Amino acid sequence: MTYDQAIHFYTLTSSEDLTQLQIGDVEDPFAPLPASKLQLNLAQDREKIDTILDKLYNAHSSDSESKAKEASKNCAGAACKAATDILSQVKGKKIFF
Asked: 22, 38, 60, 91: least CB-packed within 10 angstroms?
């Protein structure tokens, strides 16, 4: 999950295509898919996690200037709530930066 003015959830297809689901309603945030579709096991899915991180870096590094101008507008609180809702179904930790 990432966030700016909206909350972005990501899934990785079997062909390793990254799909982004964007939630713009930050007043009442929700998970667009069941938690089982949005979570990966760190020990079992390390390669998938690395792929997602690489794809996110490549997708967002090219537009960092335009994103920096919008940095003052974010929905960190709504993203935290959505993450809490997802993690309430299983044990997990949230790390925000």
From this structure: 91
Q: How confident is the model at residue 40 (pLDDT cuts 50, 70, 90)?
A: confident
In terms of DSSP H, where are the helices of the chain? 35-38, 46-61, 64-69, 76-87
- 63 CB-side CA count, 13 A: 7
Model-level pTM? Answer: 0.71
Count helices and strands (H / E) in the chain: 4, 3
Phi, psi of 6 (to 5 degrees): -135, 170
Token pair 């003052």 is at which residue?
Answer: 72
Domain-embedded: residue 92: no
Which whole number is the average pLDDT over 12-22?
Answer: 81
**Domain that includes residue 42, residue range:** 2-87
Total structural domains within the chain: 1
